[in-house]
């Protein structure tokens, strides 16, 4: 009898066997056979899968908290979250109905739930938001979830294939928004980098445990786009504190123009490049003319 077999109590052995199977448990734990590559890969995949599921229960919470504290969803794309949420629900429904291990897709369920809350917050904090719009978003979410549970499996498989373009549609609006603003706004850095790490880990677990190209290539697309967003997060880090960058609000698309409208007549704001001063021939004061790029 091996030392580990005598030392490890049944209360720990049973969950481990349930996770990686009797054969791999005996090989890796009781016989300490670290050269059993198949069981080693399987055990690593299971460990990563459980970690991803547990991490998925909280991964979006920092983004949710940032929006609530700021009372704004500036920089967070509604289209991106809507498409991403749909993608999460499709993956969850498809994997569950295919009877794949929960450890290979479980985080998508928890991320989808959190995304629903964030999407509703984006609608709620949007300028000129109405209760009707918020209720409409909630009803659309419920109807979509019901359809995914009832649609025939053949159609659901097609929807699973659509998660690749859906992933593209969910990430590209956010990438464009970041580039246009030269800022990531209230986008949570924790959520961005956690998503990046999660997609790479999920590529490994999918390749190890699930022989399904539809699922695998969906994660490949997500990984590529998550890399781009993570790079933007690094590029635009602390961009809001750069000198000379105008303050931006949801209702303020043209800061300079608004400044001109609110400035007292005859009293210029702080001089800018290309501003010019022209004397009034009548001598009654100064006439300010402004040339804007």
TrEMBL record:
What is this entry's stated membrane topology?
Multi-pass membrane protein
Q: Which GO terms describe its cellular component?
A: membrane
Residues of the signal sequence?
Answer: none
Short name of one Pfam family: PQ-loop
Keywords attached to this entry: Membrane, Repeat, Transmembrane, Transmembrane helix, Transport
Q: Where is this region: Disordered?
A: 263-293
Q: Which residues cross the membrane?
A: 78-96, 108-126, 133-149, 184-204, 216-237
Per UniProt, subcellular location reads as: Membrane
- Belongs to which family? Belongs to the MPDU1 (TC 2.A.43.3) family.
Supply the name of the protein: Mannose-P-dolichol utilization defect 1 protein homolog
